[in-house]
Structures are given as C-alpha cells and as structure tokens.
Amino acid sequence: MTTTTKKTRRPEARLARLMQVGASQVLALTKGKDTTFYRLEELSTSYGRGFRLHKADKGDGPEDHYDVMLDGARTSCECLGNLKHNHCKHVESLQALVKSGKLPPAPKS
Predict the structure, then answer these.
(1) According to the model, what pLDDT value does residue 46 have?
(2) 83: which of 12, 64, 67, 92 lies 20 to 30 Å off by Cα?
(3) Residue 16: pLDDT above 70?
(4) 17-49 confidence digits (pLDDT tens)
(5) Are 19 and 3 in contact (CB under 8 A)?
(6) Can you tell me the distance from the alpha carbon of 109 to that of 14, in angstroms, rounded to the nearest whole number?
(7) Is 5:82 a contact under the CB 8 Å cutoff?
(8) What's the pTM value of the predicted model, to 2 decimals?
(9) Model pLDDT for residues 77-106, shown as the tens digit of each residue
(10) Secondary structure in 3-state letters for the chain
C-alpha cells in the first residue's frame, strides 16, 4: 500500500520596516528573501488616515502606487490582493507600524 502525504506550506513571515531616506519615508516589506520598497506619502483625508504607497520603480514601466485608508471597518487598499481577498500586506503592514508606534502620528491640520 502506498501512502501519499500532502506537504503543507508554512506561510513565510513578513517584516515591515519604516526607514528615512533623505526627506522621504520608505516602507520596506520583506517576505522570505524578497523585499519591496515603497515611498510613503501621507494623504489628506476627511476621515481616517490615508497613505499613498509609491512602489520603487524597476524601470520596466509606469510607477505602481496604492492608496491605503486606515479607518477601522472602512480600512481599504486599492491593490488587487485587497480587492480579491479583502486584506493585503499594505494594510496589515501599516496597521502594525501604527500599533507599534513606529509610524509617526498623523500631522495636525
């Protein structure tokens, strides 16, 4: 009798780091051996806290960017992952940085 076992993949841990590069804040998202960099721009909003994440240009086309809104149940991101699964690395990373106090408070209007 032959038995087959299905290997279950353990999800790779993600690491979010916020760095200061010149006058810009840069969000580095690492999963396994891959790191993606985003220039972080805070957006003015009438509610919640908004960010535009400008993905680092790899020289292969127009720059990608994602708008993220952190506002409790109305939290959202424009990326395909969030649109398909209702959660994504962009939102989860920014939420973790806010919770840990590593993302500075929202600027006063």
Answers:
(1) 87
(2) 12
(3) yes
(4) 999 999 999 999 998 899 999 999 999 888 889
(5) no
(6) 33
(7) no
(8) 0.79
(9) 999 988 899 889 999 999 999 999 998 777
(10) CCCCCCCCCCCCCEEEEEEEECCEEEEEEEECCEEEEEEEEEECCCCCEEEEEEECCCCCCCCCEEEEEECHHHCEECCHHHHHHCCCHHHHHHHHHHHCCCCCCCCCC
Rg (CA), the chain: 17
The domain ranges of the chain are 14-56+63-99
Structure-token pair, residue 10? 């353990």
Distance (Å, whole) CA 59 – CA 75: 31
Burial class for 53, CB neighbours closer than 10 Å (0-12, 13-18, 19+): buried
Compute φ and ψ for 37, nearest 5 degrees.
-110, 140
In this structure, of 1-5, 42-46, 62-66, the range with the lowest mean pLDDT score is 1-5
Quick one: which of 6, 50, 5, 52 has its CA closest to 25? 52
